[in-house]
Amino acid sequence: MAYSIDFRKKVLSYCERIGSITEAS
């Protein structure tokens, strides 16, 4: 369970980072 939650957080943060880059450019 903990692994799944941590994995989900990583995916969400990754998506946010991609979104920020997309907005910047």
Q: How does this structure look, described?
A:
The radius of gyration is 11 Å and the shape is rod-shaped. The chain is built from 1 helix and no strands. The longest helix has 23 residues, at 2-24. 92% of the residues lie in helices and 0% in strands. By secondary structure, it is mainly α. It has one helix spanning 2-24. This is IS630 transposase-related protein. Pfam families: HTH_Tnp_IS630 (PF01710). It comes from Streptococcus pneumoniae. Residues 1-25 form the Transposase Synechocystis PCC domain.
Question: Mind sketching the topology for me?
Answer:
Blueprint: H1 2-24
Pfam family, one: HTH_Tnp_IS630
Domain Transposase Synechocystis PCC: 1-25
Organism: Streptococcus pneumoniae
From the structure above, extract its key features:
25 residues; IS630 transposase-related protein; mainly alpha; rod-shaped; 1 helix
